[in-house]
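Blackboard transcription, Thursday session:
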Amino acid sequence: MVQHVVTFGEIMMRLSTPGFARFSQATNLNITYGGGEANVAISLAYFNIPAAHVTRFPANDLGQAATALLRQHQVTTDHIIYGGDRLGLYFLETGAAARPSRVIYDRADSAFAELEPGMLNWEEILQNARWFHWTGITPAISEGAAQSCLEAVQVANKLGITVSADINYRKNLWQYGKKAYEVMPELVAGCDLIVSSIGDAADILQIKPAAEAADPFVSVGQQIMQQYPRIKKIVNTNRGSISASHNTLAGMMWNGQQLLQTPTHDMVPIVDRIGGGDAFMAGLIYGLLTYQNDQQALDFAVAASALKHTIEGDANLVTVAEVEPVMQGDSSGRLKR
Amino acid sequence: MVQHVVTFGEIMMRLSTPGFARFSQATNLNITYGGGEANVAISLAYFNIPAAHVTRFPANDLGQAATALLRQHQVTTDHIIYGGDRLGLYFLETGAAARPSRVIYDRADSAFAELEPGMLNWEEILQNARWFHWTGITPAISEGAAQSCLEAVQVANKLGITVSADINYRKNLWQYGKKAYEVMPELVAGCDLIVSSIGDAADILQIKPAAEAADPFVSVGQQIMQQYPRIKKIVNTNRGSISASHNTLAGMMWNGQQLLQTPTHDMVPIVDRIGGGDAFMAGLIYGLLTYQNDQQALDFAVAASALKHTIEGDANLVTVAEVEPVMQGDSSGRLKR
Amino acid sequence: MVQHVVTFGEIMMRLSTPGFARFSQATNLNITYGGGEANVAISLAYFNIPAAHVTRFPANDLGQAATALLRQHQVTTDHIIYGGDRLGLYFLETGAAARPSRVIYDRADSAFAELEPGMLNWEEILQNARWFHWTGITPAISEGAAQSCLEAVQVANKLGITVSADINYRKNLWQYGKKAYEVMPELVAGCDLIVSSIGDAADILQIKPAAEAADPFVSVGQQIMQQYPRIKKIVNTNRGSISASHNTLAGMMWNGQQLLQTPTHDMVPIVDRIGGGDAFMAGLIYGLLTYQNDQQALDFAVAASALKHTIEGDANLVTVAEVEPVMQGDSSGRLKR
Amino acid sequence: MVQHVVTFGEIMMRLSTPGFARFSQATNLNITYGGGEANVAISLAYFNIPAAHVTRFPANDLGQAATALLRQHQVTTDHIIYGGDRLGLYFLETGAAARPSRVIYDRADSAFAELEPGMLNWEEILQNARWFHWTGITPAISEGAAQSCLEAVQVANKLGITVSADINYRKNLWQYGKKAYEVMPELVAGCDLIVSSIGDAADILQIKPAAEAADPFVSVGQQIMQQYPRIKKIVNTNRGSISASHNTLAGMMWNGQQLLQTPTHDMVPIVDRIGGGDAFMAGLIYGLLTYQNDQQALDFAVAASALKHTIEGDANLVTVAEVEPVMQGDSSGRLKR
Amino acid sequence: MVQHVVTFGEIMMRLSTPGFARFSQATNLNITYGGGEANVAISLAYFNIPAAHVTRFPANDLGQAATALLRQHQVTTDHIIYGGDRLGLYFLETGAAARPSRVIYDRADSAFAELEPGMLNWEEILQNARWFHWTGITPAISEGAAQSCLEAVQVANKLGITVSADINYRKNLWQYGKKAYEVMPELVAGCDLIVSSIGDAADILQIKPAAEAADPFVSVGQQIMQQYPRIKKIVNTNRGSISASHNTLAGMMWNGQQLLQTPTHDMVPIVDRIGGGDAFMAGLIYGLLTYQNDQQALDFAVAASALKHTIEGDANLVTVAEVEPVMQGDSSGRLKR
Amino acid sequence: MVQHVVTFGEIMMRLSTPGFARFSQATNLNITYGGGEANVAISLAYFNIPAAHVTRFPANDLGQAATALLRQHQVTTDHIIYGGDRLGLYFLETGAAARPSRVIYDRADSAFAELEPGMLNWEEILQNARWFHWTGITPAISEGAAQSCLEAVQVANKLGITVSADINYRKNLWQYGKKAYEVMPELVAGCDLIVSSIGDAADILQIKPAAEAADPFVSVGQQIMQQYPRIKKIVNTNRGSISASHNTLAGMMWNGQQLLQTPTHDMVPIVDRIGGGDAFMAGLIYGLLTYQNDQQALDFAVAASALKHTIEGDANLVTVAEVEPVMQGDSSGRLKR
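(Written on the board underneath:)
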């Protein structure tokens, strides 16, 4: 496949209680498959950007079913490898109003966690790619996953492919004996664009806003760019949590020259909050590949993420034709006949 | 049946994705049967106004099932005729927040579209009726449907029965070679009451607000009444679309003397937006048959429509006892034990 | 079981239409089992307060299933007795926006209604209890239920156990020939704490606010305490009904010295409104058993009740760890990973 | 309606566990409405025999929903009356293999049980009927139901309408102080045709096969005809129970001259066993109204009943075109495209 | 893709009632997508034979969803074209015991039916294929479909690709003015292998068994091979219909030298009978591509078809590892842990 | 609790595809919780034998939900301990006819597998027990589980409690470095009764039938009793697999004097085959505790197991009153009203 986006990361089976049922009430669970990076690939496929996802699944029916979901959504699965013992899982209970949604992870010892360097042939995988995307979850899972990710970033850099990362910090991961700040800097150094909150920058890159900074996000962005000269854009979203059913969302980007900001989108009711950040990332990649300027790309990304909150499951199953009106300010949701 | 309302139009099988699922996600579809005019008949039956619906179904189990739905909701089905090849269908995906609901129609070549003049014995059908209702969808479907509708209006006029129409303009229909403005005027001329937006009046009747008009709706209403002297009331609703989950609704009527308006109803969350206009129409017919004055009828119609937005399916399955408190301003939704 | 709370009252099978379906649409019904007092016991069990519920079920599979639900939620069922003809039922249709939820009761002649004095050995049931809770529904069901309740209150008083009651008045009950104000005072006289609105106090205790009272609730509270010297706290909730999907809630308590009040909680969307008052009661008992002061207890109770509105079914399946942030003002519902 | 069949009896809400779930496992129940006599009416409507059902429902949404089910299946509901307290219910758990299906009745004090003589205007109800059908369940429910049934039989006899009864004996009913053999003979005396097993004849009519009889069914039939000269046909089915999932069925009739018998039908798997007898009865009425001879009527009745065992719910939703091949020996179930 | 099987034909949305519900009972329908030739492609993909399906879908969400189903099951969809008005549909009601399953087709004017010669670039589509498969349904749908099929067969013959056809005759199709025997011979002449019953041969090829033939199937086979010299194998299945829930199946092949036959498989219970013939065809193609001799291929084909009857939906989602034991006589269905 | 049965073993969450769906088709999974030994406890509770289950769950909502299922079915959960990382899982796909059911285990590193000696206080757990039951699965899971089991057997022997084991051999387990025949003999030596097939005896105890033996099962039994003098009864079931939907079952016991055998039960259709052996074990314990002789106990056990095959889920939710008729030869499954 020519000129496509490659994403890399774990995919879990997601088992969610129906409606607003609690774990203690459920007698069946809805299943789908999702992961931060695969969600980006699926969303890009819906935007008609060719996308391939790279991961490792167990060689059983559940690995096959997860693969099938990607194929169904038109993501290329040719580079997925099979082996190991189990598919990672997560259990989801959907909240409402003042009750948060809750996630129970069961991903230890997954086929992906047991990745080892050299298992994936990145030269071949990335040969025709134009963009490589990873997230901070992957290096947090296991040493092997971190090393595989580093291999990929290095090959991408060598091939001159754009590299993006959502570096988000998950404290509960990082159980294999290394700290995020020990592992991440080398990976981040290979990126052209990162999504990072101020908190993530502190936890992962040990960079904090200067005390006197006019805008703390700009301050962090400037320091990051200084230390990681490959990085050209630092992006973040600003989520307001009125309740589990009602959030607001805006995006911001420091591109070295300007602090760009988007209007704030009101998201109510929230149908499914999972994958909101991944939808933003996919929108951003689409936007940067398509539009003339960063502002449009950022506007598209936030609009895409806002729509994700209306979609069941992890992935943002919306088209460009659906995002564009929202990006242009029409959130009226008028019936389309 | 003595002194009942007769409605005429196509009924389709409605196949809707469960919850907020997209078409690409659904593995099953909820089914019901609906159509703009039949929805009016069902709602009237819930208001204890005897109602009969006239249509044409294929002579198969799906036509039988659609008939059964009408009977279940106490609509008289004695005048339905059977023949032709297929039942019209529509597929519905329910939106939320900034994501619109979407409809895919599959109604070409339906049993109803293949209606031909003379197939329906309107003298017999209307002999004891007191009201005949049709909509702008019917003449848009096919020449035969348009001619059947004209037969009905003419017989109704001859028998002195009140005729109402919701003349709404669906650009995507009107595929059989005639324009709306070629067909509709003769039909509208037989009406006592029409529901029409300013846009519909322009598209269908080629009447636009006078440039200097104080109120454009009144201006249109006055022109319509001048050209179509049988018409005594022109009615419309004003829908505000905050999102797919949150709309507002108000009604207005020009009765030749006054411009009547209703309070604005806040509808959040919207359970099912389809059939909101039909619920308004049924409420209006009920109100005009029951109340002493136009204002009450209009208030009842808007309250009925607001309640429809909480009902799954096309038809407004609410009683007068449920509409009246809302009409009188109580939208508190307090639990009834 | 040492030092537990004992609740007493009828449990019904609850048959609710799925989603927002009307009774006329449903082809299946969700079932659970609930009752005002049992809901308190289940909620307390989730708060890790040992709780036992006392009731009477028919000796059939439905009585067994209702018992199993209590056991599933860790409520002690050792004192439930079996006999009589039938399990009480109620049918529930969930409303939205301006359409209220509706309940159809079918509880006449239930096993519980046919309780007779002496059937329950209260000395044994209450021997290790520290709290006994009943509601105004029980004495309204039948003379036998009222007398059983009086037996319980009297034994509890003898054993020095705290007694609480939610005295709410249900006009549609009280069919067995006695009036609430004839039966309730003797029962209320045995209470240490009651939940009562101003209206309930008037209907049941024939106590009305003094005309000149600065605060009518305080006025009623003072009169009640005068007439019923055992009572030390009078509590109530203030519910605002914006729509069936959006309520507000605050609590108030007169403890003989102070009028305590809580912040107002915004509850939107409401997933299930049934059992909101019972969740408040359970929160109050938990709070009074746990916290140092009445204000905290009251704050906990209102926060617990607010969360109940997000839980499907009658009972409040939330833990203390979930209530405490809401009690402390965090209603943001942020995803818990 | 001219020349139709009238059936009379209680209709209950049926609440059945999904699949093969036990009562202790179910979290939802499928609902439909059924009763021995109404099942006959629905089946006749599917055979294009106009049918009207007479019963009494409570004046609430459940009574309306039960009425709607009859209307949906094209049964006339004009003579249903409304009042009383509750709708009778029954709970059903579907068995398999060696595990029987189980029914829990909850029908005491239903609107139908509280029928009183004079509530139904049988002269009007039966004025254009050609057949009246009742069963032994009705007089077992309450004295009022028995008396209403007797009124109906007497009016039918006066008007010269054919009367049929399935006299089956349900030991668990008959709780109102009278014995079946005290009440039934007067009712049976008004019948032209009865369905009765040898056991029913003994329990209800106190008639047993003569010790020396060549065929005990013929012996019973001859005695019944002697004592009840109006009766011209005595009919029965012979069910073989290999398991809950596999039964066999054959029919027999004594028509005063001949003992007619049908081939034995193999019924495996059984989808829903409830209403098998009612489907037989409807088939018999259809057959006797349509065919030239008793043998064909009996063959049709057994074939209809065999098909009922493949239909979910109480009523036999099959057409004549579906029964006829089975009646003629084609049970191959070959796909119809 | 190198050396794959190409199938060509219409895919319809299949809407089936849940469980054993009748059309008149269903309130929702399960959806999947299927068609005789696509079912072969999916089954081959499960057998790890690369397969591509060629068809035409409308350019809407339903066409996308149908495409996604093929991709999910690993069928190549690169050659599907989009256009036209609608997706063909069929409604399915599943029978049991003596009640047949029933299909209502609604496929007129589908995107596929409106295929026109030249729309598909067969040179490109077939360039690397080793097998092309079509069925008698395609030329029955429309003149354009028939001509497209002929184009494909001619290109396949030119490229030396094996051509197979299941020539089954569907009397209800063939509505476009030509008879099967006018259109089919030219198509059959391009085949290397056909599946044909004796009846199909008579209806389509006007070839009947010789009166004196020892084996009528061999007689037909010999005549076919004489008239259509390219054909090397004529294959058929022999289905015994004990009931809708219980069938038997055996296969037979005339390969010009021998009449091969398989053991008879007992299929009970039948989960889903649709696609049984397509599963046989896929098994036959797999077998002929894999095994050394025709007998094994035929044995595999029948075993595969037997397993299909246990799979929900149109397509046979079983692997070679699952078919082989059944082919070797192990139908014990012992639990695999 | 006085004089109860204690069972010990892992409980997994079971995730099963609905109906006959394959893993590749399912979009939701039914959940329940089961394990060989817990299934025995639940079944005994339904037989009114007090039962307690001992296991280890993770301290999260899934561990709570599994505990709740046991409590719901009246099993005592007081001795369950909490800790470790995860709940073991298994995925189940239900077969039919020639297609086997399939299980995918995901139980590595479960809370139970990480049991260590000393974690469970067996003196306290068993102090009032009369029977302790374990299976060969537990020592196969991990060294810690094996040692915990040995502790339990030794304490039981010391306290004089009857010990039973179903020693079944699961080749796929036993991954922790020891062989079954190294670990099991010491455990078996503490048993009073074992369930063992001839194959299990060979694999686990290295005992094979004598070449010249009249009955191989008796031969094995005699050798076992010689080597393990505590054992008084050796029991087995004989399952015939006609298909995944149709099995037969008989039981046999060598009690040192006699070879007892039961009639063969025909099980068709099989609703759920999982737990059939556990249901047998529970029936056997019940029978030996209740009946006068081994034959009755064995007959009860087989009848109980036959009924299990009609119950959804792992556990046998049937009562003694349901088993007894089947034990006495009535498998007619006649409807119970």
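Lecturer's comment: The two ends of chain F are 35 Å apart (CA to CA).
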